[in-house]
Amino acid sequence: MGSATYTELANATVLTQPVYEPGKPIETVAREFGIDSAGIIKMASNENALGPSPLALAAARDALGGVNFYPDGGATLLREKLARRAGLSPAQFVPTNGSNEAMILLAQTFLRAGDEVVFGAEAFIVYKLAALLFGAKPVAVPMPAHTHDLGAMLAAVTPQTKLVFLACPNNPTGTVNSPADIVDFATALPPHVILCLDEAYAEYLDDAVDIRPLIAAGVKIVGARTFSKIYGLAGLRIGYLYGAEEVTALVRRTRQPFNVNLVAQVAAAAALDDDAFLRRAREVNASGLRQLELGFSALRLSYIPSRANFIVFHTHFATEVFDTLQRKGVIIRPLAGYGMTDSLRVTVGTPEQNTRFLAELRAILSRK
Q1: Phi/psi of residue 363, each to 5°?
Q2: What is the CA radius of gyration of the chain?
Q3: Per-residue DSSP letter, 23
Q4: Are residues 76 and 210 in the same domain?
Q5: Are residues 14 and 97 in the same domain?
């Protein structure tokens, strides 16, 4: 009598589920190419080159002595602090294991086989993964000039559409839609559609859209934010979803108990007070974007003007540039998975890191 394999027993959607490929860690590149890890700079995953918020780091260190206890399953103190800052109720927040989990939980709560999920073709790949994981159909809308075409996204909505994902700024292109256009888009969606605004990089904007009035007006919209980017807490994996109490109560039912660890909760709460660090991070990022843009122009490389903490540039030698930079100890991100085969994304680093990256890039291109 034969026995079934694990593959034969698995859910059908798992067998065709694409695998998310993160940027390579420094230690992996060091081992692969025999490079001293101290000489490697990682400019691939849009992390904060300044490191973590000092207030968050101090709070995290203090919290380590209590990790024999489970964390607060409801992340009560963090939700209360988020609520005070936003002028909302603590019940309107769901802390998550990074903003990725917020999107997966939203999909788990609302998607079923036959539903559709609309998003931009050059938008964060997790939107597609979330749709496929729960048997929904991903609908990728073309992005002229690498920017979300809100009119085309609205036209792509059908009676089967359940979720729409929109990032501002968008990853990986760094482009934005205006606050007024986002509000018009959100209010034009039919009532059977939930809009998730991915605000992972919103803190880098001076003119980020405020969705709180839309939430109060009953528009079906939720926001997803993270402490991984400007706050520098990517390694702790903490973010949150916010919206109307009805939607957050439903999403809260699908999350795992203790989905956000104790250290992450404490660090995130402290980071919210670190206004000085945020100001410095914005200043360094703005200066770094200018430095990289000038460098690309000097190399006669086209690029996508960015409003986030990364920038995309174009070269016909993208694969070779990526591979050679890695061997030189500079890790950036290829974008072939987004259909952008002649493009590479680089995270804004410190002035010294940006200078090194541009010098290595110049040396590679000079041989072409």
Answers
A1: -65, -40
A2: 21
A3: P
A4: yes
A5: no
